Amino acid sequence: MSPRPAKALERSADNAVSPTPANGGGARSRTRGDAPQAILDRYLIERDRLGRAARFYRDHRATEPMFRDEGRKLTTTQSYPDAVADMLKIAQHRGWTEVRVSGDEGFRREAWIQARSLGVEVKGYMPRDRDRQAAGEPSLARSPSSRHLDERAQEDRLRAASVVVKRLIEDPAARTRLMERAVQRLHNQLDPGRMRDRDGSRDRRS
User: Fold this and answer.
1) Which distant-in-sequence residues (6+ apart) come within 8 Å of 10 by Cβ?
2) What are the phi and psi torsion angles at 186 (to 5°)?
3) Among positive and negative, which fits the CA dihedral 141, 147, 152, 156?
4) Which of 33, 35, 81, 196 has an alpha carbon within 20 to 30 A of 72's alpha carbon?
5) Closest C-alpha among 69, 73, 67 to residue 48
6) Torsion sign across C-alpha atoms 151, 157, 161, 162
């Protein structure tokens, strides 16, 4: 009767890493036990009937493996960062340049962050801005490249406004006032927080 609970435990391993269908044809390997030697040496391993590494244990006291190798996917019931890292290293070793992650959100988040550091593309998780920061990637909200483009656009708009003002307004003082207002509006568009801070300080003074 003992094998049946073991099978039930294997079915409960919902957190998984697998090659995406798009990458499936290009995956170098889906063979169970095909892993870097450093990882095989790090764990206590239970093998299948063909002698292939199937279950990876942290130590002899563990009742549950850190993760399982099912060939076409790697599964785990846990979300330990070191286990996730080793699963992804196996995926990379097998040529899985794009993977799909499934399971609980904590596992998918950890897998996305660590996969990006290895250059592996990930499907199955929509990263938040702080996840991108943790992975060392620029924020999509205000990345350096987007800010650079905004500043270039600002300069172009100011030059165009200056030409129009010079053509239409002869009074130098009036020209200066209009250009100062134009500059202020563009600054506020680039950094809305500046306007909120200024309005907040104005309210506090009143």
Assistant:
1) 68, 75
2) -70, -40
3) positive
4) 81
5) 69
6) positive
Model's pTM, two decimal places? 0.62
Edge-to-edge strands of the sheet including 74-76? 44-47, 53-57, 67-69, 74-76, 15-19, 98-102, 121-123
pLDDT in tens, 128-164: 998 888 888 777 665 555 555 456 666 666 666 666 5
Instruction: Report d(CA 45, CA 60) in Å as an integer.
Output: 10
The contacts of residue 57 (CB under 8 Å, 6+ apart) are 43, 44, 45, 46, 65, 66
The pair of structure tokens assigned to 134 is 């943790």
70 token code pair: 């099912």
Q: pLDDT tens-digit profile of 13-35?
A: 589 999 988 665 566 788 999 99
